[in-house]
Design brief:
The chain is α/β, with parallel strands linked by helices. The chain is 57% helix and 17% strand. The chain has 11 helices and 10 strands. The protein has a 5-stranded parallel β-sheet, with helices on both faces. A 5-stranded mixed β-sheet has the order 6-7-8-10-9, with helices on one face. The protein is elongated, with a radius of gyration of 32 Å.
């Protein structure tokens, strides 16, 4: 079954009816759809709102109180649509006004099919590129804001743990040492035992805090043991069963790949624990040719991917943006699939780079 290709939809704004019909026919022959013809600026604005075209082909000289340049400015500000001017006039003052509306093209009448096709093709391409750039900029801004917020939250959490746990332990040890100075003539075995216990608790607190910030096994043992550890930790908190499959490799992956993979899986498991209500999670790490393939699948509730991406751009949900950014940093491709009621999957594919390749 062949997939239908949606043709670009163009609104023609021209107050000469014969010229407007000729342009509409040209558009059809060039592979565009003329969604409508407006003969005035006011009608053009109404049709833009109603029809949502991909591009507006705007005559500058229009009958009525408003000309094409003023209409184009309104379209740019309110609808962010690309406008291409068509006109028989090339006076400097007209060009100067037209440039202020940031048009995507300017064609002088009469024009050929080739001139029209090239101008429209470049206008649509430029608009799509700018839309992607704007979306990326919004995502980057939202992600940067999220990074700063997470950084501050992490610093606050570490400060609280240092003050409330380690601070109390060190204070207790200090008190015991001061008591030992005052009780020189009395046996201190119980006091010493208590100090040793407090020190052991403090060491456990330090280890737990360090593991939370970055598990040492990721550096010491490699990615697979670290993924198995985080999977078991998440399964215990989330109440789901987890299977971790990996093919043992002859050499470890590069450190940046190991870190990116660990954080992506950590974020995926966090989302599963919070939202998915999953009963089973499958994690796979393998090598396919020159690529590394990492996947996380669950049988939970699933979610609306498009809605999630929109929330992320607006700063509401940035976990997926963070995963995507980590994938980009290692030249990887992150793919997320989800169906409501049928779970979700996260897959990362990136070039296999061993740790020894960096030496």
């Amino acid at each position: 079954m062949s997939l239908s290709v949606q043709l670009p939809r163009v609104l023609v704004v021209e107050d000469e009816a014969i010229v407007a019909r000729d342009i509409a026919m040209q558009l059809s022959e060039l592979g565009y759809v003329a969604v409508g013809i407006a003969s005035s600026a006011e009608q053009a604005l109404e049709m833009v709102a109603a029809l949502a075209p991909d591009l507006v082909l705007m005559d500058i000289q229009l009958g009525g109180p408003t000309d094409g340049i003023a209409a184009a400015e309104t379209i740019r500000q309110q609808y962010a649509l690309p406008v291409v001017f068509i006109t028989a006039y090339s006076a400097d003052e007209i060009l100067a006004r037209a440039k202020l509306t940031e048009p995507y093209g300017y064609i002088l009448k009469p024009f050929t099919d080739r001139e029209l096709r090239v101008t429209l093709t470049m206008a649509l391409y430029k608009h799509q590129a700018e839309a992607k750039l704007l979306n990326s900029s919004r995502q980057l801004k939202a992600l940067s804001r999220h990074v700063l917020e997470v950084q501050e939250l992490e610093r606050r959490r570490v400060a609280i743990e240092l003050h409330d746990e380690l601070g109390q332990s060190l204070t207790a040890i200090k008190i015991n040492l001061q008591l030992s100075q005052r009780l020189k003539e009395q046996p201190l075995s119980e006091l010493n035992l208590e100090s040793i216990r407090i020190v052991e608790d403090a060491l456990q607190q330090v280890r737990r805090l360090a593991t939370t910030l970055r598990p040492s096994m990721l550096d010491d043992l490699g990615l697979a043991p670290a993924l198995k550890w985080i999977a078991e930790q998440s399964a215990g908190r989330g109440g789901f069963a987890v299977n971790f499959h990996h093919v043992r490799a002859q050499s470890r992956l590069a450190p940046d790949i190991e870190t990116a993979c660990f954080r992506i899986v950590q974020e995926a498991l966090t989302n599963i624990t919070r939202h998915a209500q999953a009963k089973r999670v499958e994690i796979s790490l393998r090598r396919e040719g020159e690529d590394m393939v990492l996947s996380v699948q669950d049988d939970g509730l699933g979610f609306d991917i498009q809605a999630m991406r929109q929330r992320a751009v607006l700063g509401g949900s940035l976990g997926v943006l963070g995963m995507q950014e980590r994938a980009n940093l290692i030249d990887g491709q992150l793919t997320i699939h989800s169906v409501s009621g049928q779970g979700s999957s996260v897959q990362l594919i990136c070039p296999w780079r061993a740790h020894t390749e960096l030496l």
